[in-house]
Design a protein that fits this description.
Protein name: (2Fe-2S)-binding protein
Strand content: 25-35%
Structural class: mainly beta
Number of domains: 1
GO molecular function, one term: iron-sulfur cluster binding
Largest sheet: 5 strands, mixed
Keywords: Oxidoreductase
Radius of gyration: 14 Å
CATH architecture: Roll
Distance between the termini: 39 Å
CATH topology: Ubiquitin-like (UB roll)
Pfam families: Fer2_4
Strand order of the largest sheet: 5-4-10-8-9
CATH superfamily: 2Fe-2S iron-sulphur cluster binding domain, sarcosine oxidase, alpha subunit, N-terminal domain
Length: about 110
């Protein structure tokens, strides 16, 4: 399931068998990351070392990808200013992603 390393070493293989090879640059909270065009955003961020995508409005605890199917809303981020689940959004060149709640911030 998801994206698997390809046996040919040329990129990643998606669930549908398509090999993703075109690398692109996108940003998360103004920090640049590299991903594969068409890769699931939550996976690309996780590969880049990002687990926490935001914080709980209730108690300030970190939130990130949980169900990976768009049901729980734990991975909700702003993609180009529009709220999207990171587990349902795909990476593209120049994509600008931000946390809805500032990470590491208090009031």
């Amino acid at each position: 399931m998801g994206i698997q390393p390809s046996h040919a070493g040329r990129g990643f293989e998606a669930e549908n068998g398509k090999i993703l090879t075109q690398t692109v640059i996108f940003t998360f909270n103004s920090r640049p990351f590299t991903g594969y065009r068409g890769e699931i955003l939550a996976a690309a961020l996780r590969r880049g070392g990002i687990v926490a995508l935001g914080v709980s409005a209730v108690d300030g605890t970190p939130r990130g990808a949980f169900c990976l199917m768009g049901s729980c809303q734990e991975c909700l981020v702003l993609v180009g200013g529009v709220p999207r689940n990171a587990c349902r959004a795909v990476v593209d060149d120049g994509l600008c992603v931000t946390s809805i709640a500032p990470l590491g911030g208090g009031s």
